[in-house]
Amino acid sequence: MLIGLDRPSKRNAFDLPLLDDLTLAYGEFERDTEARVALVFAHGEHFTAGLDLANVAATFVSGWQIPEGGCDPWGVFGGPRVSKPVIVAVQGYCYTISIELMLASDINLCASNTRFAQMEVQRGIFPFGGATLRMHQTAGWGNAMRWLLTGDEFDAHEACRLGLVQEVLASEELMPRALQLAERVAAQAPLGVQATLASARQAVNEGETAAAADLPTTMRRLMASEDAQEGVRAMQERRPGEFKGR
What we know:
Elements: E1 2-5, H1 16-31, E2 38-42, H2 53-62, E3 86-90, E4 93-95, H3 97-103, E5 107-111, E6 115-117, H4 131-139, H5 141-148, E7 153-155, H6 156-162, E8 167-169, H7 171-186, H8 190-206, H9 208-223, H10 226-236
Parallel strand pairs: 1-2, 2-3, 3-5, 4-6, 5-8
Antiparallel strand pairs: 6-7
Helix pairs in contact: 3-4, 4-5, 8-9
């Protein structure tokens, strides 16, 4: 499923309608049994300039909530999270809450012209969309604090060094490569992909011991699936598997 930010006249800055629409798109993705992976991108030159603070500040002070039927793209605002992989492809400005969207996603790509900044401390607030939870897990404590405590801007190659993105590409190659990766993930066994994602998340959120305790049960469930049987047949017949998600 392609999910595109579409407020290019404002550099895709998040106002309340865009925030709500993104959560509803994630909800639609979660419920769509035919959609195995989501690719989040942006229309226009910039991924997003971050939050449109003039529009959203009062709502966040009173408490923004995920709309009914939506899923929480950031995993910190109290709504359910999607159980399927999300790939994010960014270019141009990628500020504040968009970095946090990437940190909550699974695979991230960027164009070589991307400029990143977690600049909340320059606006009298702090990164409340998950960067304080995840940036140090991805980049290490010192690297995370270097950018979170200054709000300074950094480039695509620094983002790759930090582990925020997995690949840096020319602008014209960004979407073709992102689509190629999305199709590659979508071709794999859906139950296996979702179980891999769930186990890794559990290890982060609950600890390795809790995640390890659940491995045998998950293994037995997947071994009994039609997809696992198809995987064996495909291996024996030396062909790609044709998986149904059951």
